[in-house]
Amino acid sequence: NGASRFGRLRQTLAGVSEKMLTQTLRTLERDGLVRRTVYPEVPPHVEYELTALGQTLREPLKALTEWSVVHIEEVITARGEYDDRAERTR
């Protein structure tokens, strides 16, 4: 909701490296999903915000997140079964 600075995004997305977050934000900006605003201060103040196009992804991503929460145990079980089969064929 609203604009966020890089540091706040990094805290919110714990486990994502700085390099990957930077690359992803650049890609999202290029795709027109994120707006990057630089304020001429020392040190530079940069904010990221969803564009109108980016806002259209909120509901589909919410649905995907909800699906993931409901089905995570099935996914974990499937991964284990796959890994067991892969181990037996080595």
How would you explain this protein's 3D organization?
There is one protein chain. This protein is an alpha+beta fold and 90 residues long. It is 61% helix and 16% strand. It folds into two domains: 1-56, Winged helix-like DNA-binding domain superfamily/Winged helix DNA-binding domain (Arc Repressor Mutant, subunit A); 57-90. A three-stranded antiparallel β-sheet has the order 1-3-2. The longest helix has 31 residues, at 58-88. It starts with a strand and ends with a helix. The model has no long low-confidence stretch (mean pLDDT 95).
Structural class: alpha+beta
Strand content bin: 15-25%
Through-space gap between termini: 48 Å
State the CATH architecture of the largest domain.
Orthogonal Bundle
Biggest sheet: strand arrangement: 1-3-2
What's the short version?
This protein has 2 domains: 56 residues, Orthogonal Bundle (Arc Repressor Mutant, subunit A), CATH 1.10.10; 34 residues. The chain is built from 4 helices and 3 strands, in the order βααββαα.
List key phrases describing it.
4 helices; 90 residues; alpha+beta; 61% helix; 2 domains; 3-stranded antiparallel β-sheet; 3 strands
Lay out the secondary structure:
Blueprint: E1 4-5, H1 6-12, H2 18-30, E2 34-39, E3 45-50, H3 52-55, H4 58-88
Antiparallel strand pairs: 1-3, 2-3
